[in-house]
UniProtKB/TrEMBL annotation:
Keyword Glycosyltransferase applies: no
Source organism phylogeny: Eukaryota, Metazoa, Ecdysozoa, Nematoda, Chromadorea
GO function terms (MF aspect): metal ion binding; methyltransferase activity
Protein name: Protein CBG16272
A GO cellular component annotation in the UniProt record: chromosome
Length: 476
């Protein structure tokens, strides 16, 4: 990656720690000079999902829908003869048609140019695409078997499992926008070996899908980066030890591959451990076991909690159990439209065990009081690492922005002290971990509120699950 300042930030070809938004027409501040030299940091004036090269200039089809990073121009069936269908066409997605045949759509072509594929060579050369389709179809078939699924939902699964000509011949149908979002957001994931993702709406009349810029790293406003660089948490282990007066011991076990050199427990004591006589809320230290899972015994959603991950000072490899958020999401997730009350929700496409890392909450890191105007319902507060900051995913975010509220949550947000290299800025991170086993197809739910807030007499009825008697607070 070039070390010169870019005007825009986007999805990179190498792993990025963070993006930094700087003022337009202003020189890079001297205190940001080391960031500009850091190949894992992107700096620019705006963040964008670039339109991919598949956006065919001059193509006949032009989509009505303008979404970040989604091509609007595509070739059509009328242009096939001029371009000769062959094995060089890149496969986008596969379906099953009404004759139980394998049907394929192609990158840069709209649905009118879908073709049936019968030969073995196609299957050999497109294992990844076919694997994603199998996972999607397994979920859709579970909907067909679900006694609680409505007839409308079961009928909607036929769009994928028994596709007809009517849908293929309607390239402006919202179904194809959902499919493009699934494909191009998955493409961002695949750059970093993350699993695919799927957007679904199981209704007769599809609703408009969510419109936002997709990121797999946090994007930091310039003023927020000033806060980060001056924070105590940003200091190196050596710097912290020089000013720490107590003698540190290794009383806490560690699952690190290199337990004798691991620095994580020292960081806990120096930065986050409750101090004698302090009136602040006690923070809980969430530690991983040898599988990278957290101990959720006696977990309380109201507790402040932190996970500390290894850096290069620990002497361990990238496969260390204490580097879950650095490795990223490993479980396939999907986003499904639920109803008018919940809107969209995040669901597990495969089983997730208690204590497992699910996904990172990515978005715009901004100052809570003076940052960019935003929809604050997407704010996640940072109570321990940089209390002045929040991560907001309303305009820039990832799958985690769709987690629904649940009064009996199965997942939780946990602040995460994590950087690959000790010289990197300690950009605050928030990880999502399972606090219960989550079955395939189940919603991933967190609690938006403290327990006492759910008893408000001036609230409105919660509909997180049938029979819920809680009320959600009103904000004016």
């Amino acid at each position: 990656m070039s070390r010169h300042l870019k005007k825009t930030l986007g999805q990179p070809n190498v792993r990025t720690v963070a993006g930094v938004l700087i003022a337009r027409n202003q020189p890079v501040k001297p205190e940001f000079a080391h960031l500009a030299r850091n190949e894992s940091i992107q700096m620019g004036h705006i963040f964008t999902n670039p339109i991919p090269a598949e956006d065919r200039l001059g193509a006949l089809f032009y989509s009505r829908h303008n979404y970040p990073g989604i091509p609007r121009r595509k070739m059509t069936a009328n242009e096939v003869a001029a371009h000769k269908k062959n094995y060089e066409w890149k496969v986008q997605t596969t379906y099953t048609n009404i004759y139980n045949q394998l049907l394929c759509t192609y990158v840069g072509w709209n649905s009118t140019a879908a073709f049936v594929q019968l030969d073995a060579r196609f299957r050999r050369e497109n294992q990844e695409v076919l694997g994603t389709a199998r996972q999607r179809d397994a979920y859709l078939r579970s909907i067909q078997r679900d006694p609680e699924a409505t007839d409308e939902m079961k009928q909607a699964t036929r769009m994928w499992l028994s596709m007809g000509l009517d849908l293929l011949n309607t390239p402006h149908h919202l179904f194809w926008l959902y499919e493009d979002l699934s494909y191009y957001h998955t493409k961002i994931h695949r750059v970093h070996d993350l699993p695919p993702l799927i957007y679904l709406c199981l209704r007769r009349n599809l609703v408009m899908p969510p419109r936002f810029k997709y990121t797999i790293f946090n994007v930091v406003e310039e003023s927020a980066m000033d806060v980060i660089l001056s924070a105590q948490s940003n200091k190196s282990v050596d710097e912290l030890q020089k000013s720490y007066k107590k003698k540190l011991t290794n009383a806490i076990d560690t699952a690190c591959e290199s337990p004798n050199t691991c620095q994580c427990n020292k960081l806990w004591h120096m930065l986050y451990a409750p101090q004698p006589g302090s009136t602040e809320s006690d923070a809980k230290y969430m530690t991983q076991n040898g599988e990278g899972r957290l101990d959720m015994t006696d977990f309380d959603v109201s507790d402040l909690r932190v996970v500390i991950e290894c850096s290069d000072t620990c002497g361990c490899s990238s496969e260390c159990p204490r580097r879950c958020s650095q490795r990223g999401q490993t479980k396939m997730l999907l986003v499904r439209y639920e109803n008018e009350f919940i809107d969209f929700a995040l669901r597990a496409a495969e089983p997730i065990r208690q204590g497992e890392f699910i996904v990172e909450y990515n978005g715009l890191v901004t100052q809570a009081d003076t940052g960019t105007r935003r929809d604050e319902s997407y704010d996640v507060a940072l109570n321990l690492i940089c209390p002045q900051l929040v991560i907001n995913s309303s305009a820039i975010g990832n799958l985690s922005r769709f987690m629904a509220h649940g009064c009996q949550p199965n997942a939780a947000l946990i602040e995460t002290h994590s950087r690959v290299k000790d010289e990197d800025p300690l950009v605050p991170r928030v990880s999502v971990y399972a606090i219960k086993d989550i079955a395939a197809g189940e919603k991933v739910e967190i609690s938006y509120y403290q327990e006492e807030q759910l008893k408000s007499k001036d609230g409105y009825p919660c509909k997180c699950r049938p029979g819920c008697t809680n009320t959600l607070p009103r904000y004016y």
